[in-house]
Amino acid sequence: MDFDMGKIDIAWCPGCGNFGILTALKRTLAELQIRPRDLVLVSGIGQAAKTPHYVKANFFNGLHGRALPPATLIKAVNPELTVIVTSGDGDMYGEGGNHFIHAIRRNPDITVIVHNNMVYGLTKGQASPTSQPGFVTPLQVDGVFEEPFNPLAVAVALNASFVARTSIHDLELTRRIFARAIRHKGFALVDTFTPCVSFNKVNTRHWYQEHTYVLDDNYDPRDRTAAWQKAVETGPWPLGVIYTSPPKPSFEENLPVYKTNRQPLIDRKVQWEKLAALIDSRKG
Amino acid sequence: MTGSPAAHDISIVLAGEAGQGIQTIEQLLTAILQLAGFHIHATKEYMSRVRGGTNSTSIRVASRPVQAPLQRIDLLIPLDEKVIPHLRYRLTEETIIVGDREVVGDLSRLRHVPLRQLAREIGNEMYANTMALGLILGLLAVEAQVMEQYLASRFAGKGEEVVANNLQAARLGHDRGYALRESGEIRFPEIMRHDNAKEIMVNGSEAIAMGAIAGGCQCITSYPMTPGTGVITFMAQHQHDFGLLVEQAEDEIAAINMALGAWYAGARAMVTTSGGGFALMTEGISLAGMLETPVVIHLGQRPGPATGLPTRTEQGDLELALYAGHGEFPRIILAPESLPGAFALSRQAFDLADRYQVPVIILTDQYLVDTYYNTAAFVLDPRQTSRFIVESAEDYQRYRLTPDGISPRAIPGRGLGLVGVDSDEHDEAGHITEDLELRVKMVDKRLHKLEKIKEALLPAGLAGPGDYRAIVVSWGSVNPIVREALAQLGVNDVAQIAIQQVYPLPADLGHYLAAADKTIIVENNATAQLGHLIQRETGHGFHQAILKYNGLPFTVEELVDDLQKCLPAS
Ligand SMILES: Cc1ncc(C[n+]2csc(CCOP(=O)(O)OP(=O)(O)O)c2C)c(N)n1
Predict the structure, then answer these.
(1) Is the CB of A121 under 6 A from ligand 1?
(2) CB contact under 8 A, A268 and B218
(3) Is the pTM of this model over 0.95?
């Protein structure tokens, strides 16, 4: 399968980590043999959220912070589609924070790749919910003092079905984790460390390399207590699949519309006889 | 403003604290009155609380179809002592108050019936409500048999004792009521009955929901907010039968974005809310405009600003609906005036949204969603509900520039092509663009759809004499009240325009207004929002505005008085 768009004008800065995510994603999709027409990429707004424009697939590039609600329903009304969300840390954890929490609770069978560069790129360098304390920006002139948002800890606390972190400096690891996440049934979060070469001079590619380590093969992501410890670890930051919940039904599987009938909702017709009977039941 | 009791109807009001069971009596009473063959119209006003306060249900029992509330009360059944001050403004010299002194206290005008005492004799005070029900039915000379049959089937699941006690209570009440009537002590005009085998009784929320199902709606995502909640609740209760996807969203922002995702992927979806929730949806409405993804939004209005009067009615959100969402894009706003109108317009909303790829807003209000009356059974015609989705070819472009501005809409996974939609300005394939020439083309394309919509929508229509001197204009739920008031006034030089299609406005509207010496606008709000819209769109303003914004709907008598003052003496 070819997900390449050919020669297109890409709006990212030279050296941007998003290029690595794009490459890893396209390779993973090809490897999983997903057909472009059966794939929908969903995003909000931001530099990361432009990713769907650079992959040959269906796409829904919606509002800032609002990728998860449409993604959840796209999958729900047609479960035959593969749905992948690609968005920034501001988009997902800031503007869209409420949806992040509730999408995990619903557990739709979608993959969520968050390009976490710890800064707002598109709007030119303000702090994001994941910016580290002390991070100075034109707007946070004395540096960030808020507690950083910890997406992995939140996801583990909500018993998310698949929680992983990767970093773009390790492309091979990133590809492997993307593949596992997409294959996973249920909500799969991949928080992806990626450098913003223009607006984050602290958390650079080198910094990520220095401040992360890969979980070894003995680590068991099914152990929630261990997962919690890994989720709150910050110095250095663990990479890998942090947590997988005990198997549970996805949002679509829980929906009454699919309990006895697996036909995608979009292919169903109006139940005229039943509606006539319902109207009749209101006669005196 | 007493108004003489017209001979063709009786206005009955039940009132008491929240939690006293008024709703149950109301429901039983209207069902039995329907069985007995009366025309009825029932509406309620209630406080935003779960217990206490004063709520009331007004039931109009009539010899002919009625679609409007009355001010006067002919028979008041108070269930506690706070009712009289609450409803004093609706009492007339002739109002008959029947109740239990033990509950209501010593009112000079009270016809005392010892409901509690009698109920205790049956075994439990809680049967007092059923007894009151029987009393009303006896006063109206409804056959005891009709009442008993209904109650027996209604309480069947609750055990023999409950059925027997309720029947006994109802019968006791009925005997008392009938005796009061026969003795001539309380006498109401004779109300004619009719064959209503082809009629149904539903409320406004149900009519909207049934219309949506008939319109092919498969999915509703919403966050609870009175008075919008009735629609999603009804759909939730019927989701198994109709295969509906019903999801309570985390907030209204999620709700509208979910609905857009559902439409994008090929389902028909709606959201239901009230003003506050709608305000949160506005960015999503703008997104619908940009994506050209259809969506249907039910906005049940209540008085604002902010939380306002949560359980009451107003037409205060027309301008909100009209201007919600940044940027310039077309939309359609429908305001059903009646239950059949709610069904028909709700159904139609889905086809309009799909055909023109625009947001369609159905504007109702608390009064309409909570009102019910007998009406001809909704007619289903499967041919009326069409789909507008194409199968994509390999070179498919979602935003192909076409002469009418409407690009054939395909959905992902159905066809060989790819479907991309984007909230940024985009090229024909849906990709982000900053080509400013293309920008102009895309704006023109989107706005051109409004011209197409205008061509397809219905004319305003004018009711009344062709050689009118004055015109009265109103919209939505106010229309039938104006209609009845004008009929009662019996004026022969006044015409009515009853608008249900608020935006775009009917094309013939200006032409009618131009021919009138006097124009009057009637709205359930404080600033005449439709009046301003009409003035802007047609150049014709209004000489006078009749406005009400205390949280209650207009009544017929009020409008008779107000219109009389405004209309030129003929
Ligand atoms: C409602 C709304 N608020 C604000 C913005 C402006 N905005 C666009 S992207 C963005 C943040 C971008 O940061 P992030 O999501 O981390 O993505 P990045 O650009 O860093 O990839 C902001 C604030 C917007 N488009 N919409």
Answers:
(1) yes
(2) yes
(3) yes
